Structures are given as C-alpha cells and as structure tokens.
Amino acid sequence: MTGDRPFGHRSLGLRVRAFEKGDGVGGTWFWNRYPGAMSDTESPFYRYSFDEALLQEWSWERKYIDGPDILAYLEAVVDRHDLLKDIQLSTEITGMTFDEEAETWTVTSAAGESWTARYVVTSLGLLAAVNVPDIPGIDTFRGTLVHTAHWPDDLSIDGKRVGVVGTGSTGSQFIVAASKTASHLTVFQRSAQYSVPSGNGPTTPEEVADYKSRYPEIWEQVRNSSVAFGFEESTIAASSVTPEERDRVFQEAWDRGNGFFFMFGTFNDIPTDPESNEAAAAFIRRKIAEKVKDPETARKLTPTQPYAKRPLCNVGYYDLYNQDNVELVSIKENPIVEITPEGIKTADGVVHELDVIVMATGFDAVDGNYRRMDIRGRDGQTVDEHWADAPTSYLGVATAGFPNMFMILGPNGPFTNLVPSIEVQVEFVTKLIAAAEQQGGTIETTQEFEDAWSEECTSIANATLFPKTDSWIFGANIPGKKHTVLFYLGGMASYRGVLDDVQQAGLRGFEVKSKAVAA
Ligand code: NA7
Description:
The protein is an alpha/beta fold. Among the domains are: 130-194 and 312-362, FAD/NAD(P)-binding domain; 199-205 and 221-293 and 302-308, no CATH class. The chain has helices spanning 28-31, 52-57, 67-80, 169-181, 205-213, 215-223, 243-256, 259-265, 274-291, 295-301, 368-371, 383-386, 418-439, 447-462, 492-504, 515-518, and strands at residues 18-19, 38-42, 64-66, 87-88, 93-99, 104-109, 114-117, 120-122, 144-147, 161-165, 184-189, 195-197, 312-314, 326-330, 336-339, 343-346, 351-353, 356-359, 374-376, 405-407, 413-414, 442-445, 487-488, 510-513. The strands form 9 sheets. It has a 5-stranded parallel beta sheet. Strands 7-6-5-19 form a 4-stranded mixed beta sheet, with no helix packed on it. The radius of gyration is 24 Å and the shape is globular. The model has no long low-confidence stretch (mean pLDDT 95). Bound molecules: ligand NA7. Residues 127, 133, 165-171, 190-191, 310, 331, 360-363, 470, 472, 477 line the site of ligand NA7.
C-alpha cells in the first residue's frame, strides 16, 4: 500500500479480529438506508484523512454525499486495505469479560463462540442502539412499521400513505424525501425543530479538483477547528454587532447552507449567549412564518425552545408543509394514544390511516449499546454498574476498572464531524496500546481522572445553552435515562490539545500495571 500513513494496528504489528453484527461493513451507513439518508457534513470533509491516495481517487458530485455513496466509500476503504480478512461479519458480540489472572479479555458472541485477546477496542456506535417508543397496539398494525435504522431494501414508499414519528435529523431528512413520493405523508411531531437550508446541489469538477489539491491544509484546518466541519468558526460575537448586521450575516449563512455553519460559522456566541441565541432563533422563526402558508401549521412548526440542539439542515423542509399531500400533527397538543391495525390514533379520536409507519425516533445514544452487552472488568463489575450514575470516561476512550479496553466514540468524547474524531481517537488508542506492549502489562485509567474529565465536560456543557433543551446529547430522549452530558463540547482543537498534553506528561491519567514488574 502506498500513499497512506501507518495507522491503527498495522503500525504496531498486532493481530486483530474485528466483529460486526451486520452482514456488511459501514456501521451507521450499513444500517441507515431510509430514503433521504445523507451526511450533513460537506462532501470533502466526510472521509478519512489517513489514506492520501484514496482522497485523490474518490470523488463526489454534490455538496453532500448520500447514504449509499458513503457506504460505497467505506467499502472501498475496507477493500483497499484488505481489512475484510480480519473482520467477522454477521457476528453479534454479547459479552466481554476481563480475566484478572491472565490479563486477557474473553469475548463471546450470541452464537456461543468465544475468543481471547489482550486488548479490546469497542466501536459500538454512538447512534446505533435503536429507540422504538412503547406505543400501545404497536404490534397490531397491518401495514409495515419500520425504524429508520432498519429500513428493508425492498421497502418502497412510492404512492403510499406514510406516517412518520420524529422530526430530528433523521426524521427531517426522511420527510423531505417522502414528501416527494408518498401519496400522503402524515408527520407526527413532538418537538418543533429549527432547520436551515443545506444548500445541497451539484459540485463542479473544478471545485472537486481544488479541494483535492488542498487536502493537507484542509486537514490542518479541520483538526484545529472546533466542530471539524471544514469551515472557519466565527470569532465575532453576535452581541457585539447591530441587529441589522446580525440579520445580514444570518441571511448570508441561510443562502450558503449547512446547519453547523449557521450555528458556529455566523457568530461565536450563538450556543452560549441567550440573547445571541434568540437572535438566530428569531431569524429562523421569521423564515418559517414567511414560508408556511397555513398559519396553524406555521405555529405548530415554530420552536419555542432555544436553538441549542444538534443543528439541522435540509432542502425545503418548511416549504414542503404547503404541499397538499403533507399533513402535520402536533403530538404534544394531540398525543398518539395507540397504533391500530389501520394506522395511528390520536387523542382527538382520529385514526390516521396508513400503509407504512416510520419510526424516526432516534437512538439510545452513546452508552446504549454498552449497556445492552455484558461487559465485565475488574472484580466482575459490569460497565452498566460502573456507569450506574452516568456514563463516564477519561478522554472518551477509557473507563476505570476496565484495563486494556479502549472506546472509540465512548461517553464524553468530542462533539464534532465524527470522522476526524474517530481518526484522532484511533491514533491515541494506538499509542496507549503501544505503551502497554512496550512495558508488558495492562493499561488503564483511574477513577480520579475519569471524575475530573466528567467535571470538565459538565462545566463546559453548562457554559452553553445545550443543557436547556431536551435532546439525545444529554440522554433526554430516552424515558428514564438520566439527564447528563454525553459529550466533550470543548471542540476538536482543544480536545487534541488535551491529548497532546496527556502524552507529553507520559500518558498522565493512565497506569501501566506490569505483573512482571510487580513480582
Ligand atoms: P433524534 O435527533 O433523537 O430525533 C428523534 C425524533 O423522534 C425527535 O423528533 C423526537 O422528539 C422524536 N421522538 C422520540 N421519541 C418519541 C416518542 N416516544 N414519541 C414521539 N416522538 C418521539 O434522532 P435522529 O435519528 O433524528 O438523529 C440522531 C442523530 O443521528 C443525529 O443528530 C445525527 O447526528 C445522526 P423530541 O425532539 O425528543 O421531542
């Protein structure tokens, strides 16, 4: 292989066995095949930086890559690096137990197979444990009921009566797509959302060539930015400029497109200053009022919470509610009471007759899949017990009492375009494993460092308006889940700075315990 830098286990010369529940690689993009699925990170930045040759080979034709193209890209990565020989597909791992005597992990599958390893790296998916609401009568529906993350390849909604529950990032993408092909689309909305235009459209070959010629500087910028979306975050406070100037900047961002750009590229205090946040929110609310013709529909679509959830963007999200085939039901005002064989019944007694019900109801984010597995560290303690109060970690990659276990996108990792975060964490975990290899022992973090990292994440989150809204970023979407921070909201550059400091201080916060040395 040429043109790529040594990355991950290959730089250590270790043997690796990877397990994947799906019948193919791709994770999120393997599972999420609903109509309209796409990344809202612009195409040049939603890819790995480590394979420089592939960056040159792989092109794109639109501002954003859609689900099937991302899956094809990930398959190409696997192919090029001949990874499939190390990956066992269609294998659901159900348990992992640390043997303190042997200092090894035993990994077991649902089929009863087991393997032993010195190290385990968990990449269980940040948004993978599916959340399906417990609605009475859900099993009685005569049509097709699907969660967006389990979309069957042979399910078409063309010409059908479709109901969708959920208007988050997934729901709004699906709604835009379904509004074009369903005979009737009923949107069951719990919370109104702020959505700005994505600005999606064709890219010219010249633009693509220009990006390709600048990749080294692009990655430099991405890694030194906050959200790692490939744009410069604003350094100007909305509170420092006139209302006219704010609206000029918001309009420019509206015309440019992209949700993260609207929140982080316009001004630097939208997520933190209530007045600046309200200025952005009011701008979007005015757009809703301008676009949506029926005042009652416009009222229901208008959010009242601060603009402080994961930012969304779509093409024509609000306009589509003017179409005759689209109907909006506010289930805050008129709750779903049950699912019947014919469709969805709301509190006003109406049965909305449907052929397909789509649950765009999200995920038990971040720790969901960890808790669904039986993961046992020192003294037989499970991860579920260890996280009884809240899911925690040191630097998003390690948790105390679980030696030689490393998480990619574990709790309290950075909140960014996830591809660069994955790369940064893989590089860091590789260094941790190298340290353990070098010293011939186990490596683990301590409770003290884990607690300090949680405090750091909480205090950063509390300096923002994000905890003031109910979203999966704090676990608020799952009934009974504790409202707690699940991310490091300090940004990519700061996160990398912390990792650099930790390394320079001899992996501060990690202990290598060598039995040989102890003996
Ligand atoms: P989200 O963002 O968690 O959205 C889920 C949506 O489903 C949201 O509108 C919820 O309303 C709604 N929801 C959840 N539970 C229910 C129940 N019980 N009844 C009615 N409506 C419900 O998930 P997504 O899949 O859209 O996006 C997750 C991330 O994946 C996304 O941010 C990307 O980064 C990728 P709510 O707003 O909670 O009132």
